[in-house]
From TrEMBL:
It comes from Rhynchospora breviuscula. Heme binds at residue 119. Belongs to the cytochrome P450 family. Its cofactor is heme. One of its GO terms (molecular function) is heme binding. This is Uncharacterized protein.
Length: 160
């Protein structure tokens, strides 16, 4: 599907340019879906310190508590994402989610964090990842390994 979008736009004898990337809506949806299924900062970022006692949802969070946001749990929550384990970039292509605000305060998908300490590299990251993936798909044929060994996509909990 990315090729269906990419090939007519770039053409067989041209390289992908940065200006092509903003028109690659399906590819951007694919990248968002990868960031949803496998957020590089699933838990370990976003540490926040309660500087005073505070009640959240009726529960006391005492001063000195370090809290972490479990982004992985949010991006796999079936009440937020129907079929959360399926890879479905189309969910970002629907009319209302065309500009799905992954950089703002919509916490359904915030792979770069949110608020004043959110990732300052987020725009650079999205631009470069879009450009690299588009270029790699355009310049090479990607095939399954000839011996049939599947790629190991199992997750591990590390920094990223
Ligand atoms: C796909 C790539 C990336 C992802 C998913 C990502 C994700 C994140 C996350 C989740 C945080 C913590 C935000 C928070 O605490 O609310 C963060 C912080 C940060 N990121 Fe990124 N990041 C990426 C790429 C980059 C790049 C390319 C740079 C630099 C060019 C960068 C620089 C930083 C810095 C300096 C912080 C700390 C900000 C602070 O504490 O004030 N990141 N990133």
């Amino acid at each position: 599907k990315v090729h269906e979008e990419l090939d007519p736009m770039v053409g067989p004898h041209q390289s992908v340019t940065e200006s092509d990337c903003s028109s690659l809506h399906y590819l951007q949806a694919v990248i968002k879906e990868v960031l949803r299924l496998h957020p590089p900062g699933p838990l370990l970022s976003w540490a926040r310190l309660a500087v005073s006692d505070i009640y959240i949802g009726g529960l006391l969070v005492p001063a000195g508590t370090t809290a972490m946001v479990n982004m992985w749990a949010i991006t796999h929550d079936p009440s937020v994402w129907p079929e959360p384990l399926e890879f479905k970039p189309e969910c970002f292509m629907e009319a209302n989610s065309e500009d799905f605000p992954i950089f703002r305060a919509d916490l359904r998908l915030a792979p770069f964090g949110s608020g004043r300490r959110s990732c300052p590299g987020r725009t650079l990251s999205m631009k470069t990842v879009t450009f690299w993936v588009a270029s790699l798909l355009h310049e090479f044929y990607w095939l399954p390994a000839s011996d049939g060994t599947p790629v190991d996509l199992s997750e591990v909990l590390r920094l990223s």
